[in-house]
Amino acid sequence: MDSITHIALGACLGDAFAGKQLGKKAMFWGAVAQSVPDIDFIASAWSSTAENLLAHRGFTHSILFALIMAPLLAMLAERWHRPHDISLRKWVVFFGVQLFIHLLIDGMNVYGVGWFEPFSHHRVSYNWIFVADPFYSVWLGISFIVLLILKRNHPRRDWWVRFGVGMSTIYLLYCGLNKIKIDNDVRDVFRKQQITYNNYFTTPTPLNNWLWYVVAANDSGYNIGYRSLFDKERKIDFHFVPKNDQLLKQVSNHEDLQKLIRFSKGFYATQQWNDTLVFSDLRFGQMIGWKDPGARFAFHYFLQHPGENDLVVQRGRFAGWNKEAFIALLKRIKGD
């Protein structure tokens, strides 16, 4: 999830843990705990773009890292706030819960999380929710603001914590049910439309959990389409994108290529854009693909111009968005 959502969630949980003893300082510790795994951003200062893709949500999002950091943060907080009546064991549990919640939530979107680093490079992603979903974040944001305003001993503080955490959790469970339904629908469509595949994935389109992006991979490429929870027909209008592995022969010695393939989990395609060879990670979707099925992919890496790949994950995410594209998204969500 985005950093602001993590901070709001952590602050609400911090207030629930020790708001009565520490006041709003408990919110600070909660926000810190939820933010600690994201210190991996500093790796971008010395690593290449391809290396940074794997470093982000790598070791600092691992179970081992959480097990190491929870007692360290607990000892720091316990010493900082002496005298107090919170045991070191409770501090460890608090920070451990915060860190593991961060890891769990980040695993819900397409980027992937290195839970098992450094013992395994497998990245976990179960694609329940888009990385920035306002319908998840809004409840936590409201509670966070109210808790900052209310006085330390206000009787409604507990209620606002339950409101924010409860509503966001209910929404996450709703997203999980949507994922199950979409996957069942998509497999049924594959059978009816005789779509052959070796592997597939579904993931939400930007800012919602009702329209889903579908990619089915076979040996030569990918069938790509969109499925709304409100579609009445068991049908998806697929278009085919070739994998074009043969194009990579000319850059087989490229130092970043294997890192990009590993990061993409094998869901990649190669295109020739004029004189430039482009590696696209299909997991991040297309630029307004619900409006233009032939649109380019949001994640595109210029193999022959590595210096032009800053913000490679972000640069295409909302490219081409305007009023017309947003209206088209709403219509497609409705099943039109």
In short, what is this structure?
With 336 residues, this protein is an alpha+beta fold.
Structure description:
This protein is α+β, with helices and mostly antiparallel strands. It has 2 domains: 3-174, no CATH class; 193-333, no CATH class. 43% of the residues lie in helices and 14% in strands. It has 9 helices and 7 strands. The protein has helices spanning 3-22, 25-35, 49-55, 63-80, 88-106, 134-149, 157-192, 257-264, 323-333, and strands at 199-204, 211-217, 221-228, 239-242, 268-273, 276-286, 297-302. The chain has a 4-stranded antiparallel sheet. The chain has a 3-stranded antiparallel sheet with strand order 5-6-7, covered by helices on one side. Strand 1 and strand 2 (211-217) form a beta hairpin. Helix 1 (3-22) packs antiparallel against helix 2 (25-35), helix 2 packs across helix 5 (88-106) and helix 6 (134-149) runs antiparallel to helix 7. It starts with a helix and ends with a helix. 39% of the residues are buried.
What labels describe this entry?
336 residues; 3-stranded antiparallel beta sheet; 2 domains; alpha+beta; globular; single chain
Order of helices and strands: HHHHHHHEEEEHEEEH
Overall 3D shape: globular
Order of strands in the sheet with the most strands? Answer: 1-2-3-4
- The figure for the number of domains is 2
Helical proportion, percent range:
40-55%
Segments where pLDDT lies below 50 for 5+ residues? none
Oligomer: single chain
Percent strand:
5-15%
> What summary fits the major beta sheet?
4 strands, antiparallel
Number of helices: 9
The pLDDT mean sits at: 93
Radius of gyration: 22 Å
Structural class: alpha+beta
Strand segment count: 7
Give the N-terminus to C-terminus distance in angstroms: 29 Å
